[in-house]
Amino acid sequence: MNIELEKIPVSELFAGYRNSDEEGVVAYGGSLNIRPKYQREFVYKDEQRNAVIDTVFKGYPLNVMYWVKNRDGTFEVLDGQQRSISICEYLSDNFSVNNLKYNNLTVDRQKQILNYELMVYFCEGTDSEKLEWFEIVNIAGAVLTKQELRNAVYTGAWLSDAKKQFSKTNCPAYLIGNKYLAGTAIRQDYLEAALDWISAGEIKKYMSDHQHDHNANKLWAYFQNVITWINSAFSNYRKEMKGIHWGGLYNRFKNENLDPVALEKEIANLMQDDDVTNKKGIYSYVLEKDEKHLNIRPFSDNMKREIYEKQKGICKRCEKHFPIEEMEGDHIDPWHSGGKTNASNCQMLCKQCNRRKSGK
Questions:
Q1: 0.90 exceeded by pTM
Q2: What is the pLDDT of residue 3?
Q3: CA 191 to CA 109: how far, in whole Å?
């Protein structure tokens, strides 16, 4: 890749600046694509955005930026999107710093900003070289997520449509599913979750198979079906429902004749059970009946020591003596049969006997 360092005044960067969902983000007389398809959405917080403007105010140097030079003479921002948009949005009077918008500044201060020189590397190379370089020079502190990197590879009409549904602030996926999804839409967490669900974890394969589709209607319809299923199966929302791998449960149980009333009764009882330490796992448990989801509270070390001494170190099943390190606390009456994690329901078994009992 060929690289040349250039000095670009802010006034030249800002010339022709436009920022819209339909047309994207362009500047530099319309010849700079600030947000190419493989770039992330704007993710700077207010303090980061304001720090960029403060740096320009003081005349301190910003980190170097990288623009890719295309064959037709246009450019794409390889690294520097967040800083470029921060500067252009300030010049557009869309936010203030220290209670001053750009138009509130004195003329000399405005000129100072417009004359500020950005250090920009112009880069020329193949698509694969550009993407590799993009990953290398990615801004420290706002590292690309795995899904953002996948987006860099599988660009096209399908991805653009998918991002409209899943990757914008207050996007459709957020409006119907934010209660159930962890993370944020603009960092591609919603898109990643939907892809993970529909592909059973084979996200790259799914994106490769659908890269050249005209739209992402199939993915969007699937996501809506998952949310509809959740709402119909679980009548009472709880905060523990956020971030569950709902797609996996939907894929397995969507055709089951579930009883929402019975499910809610079981969930409410489990939520009140002190032995259940992973409340989020309750939703998987009521469908799969696998206790591993619940992280049933183990017997405390003090409790196990107490029972060990009462048994004089003798395993209750094989009746052999073992040091306490080679024994484990066991529920006499299993938890799923109503047995509690307390001293009266505890017995000490050697590890081998406990494994045999658990395997039955």
A1: no
A2: 79
A3: 42
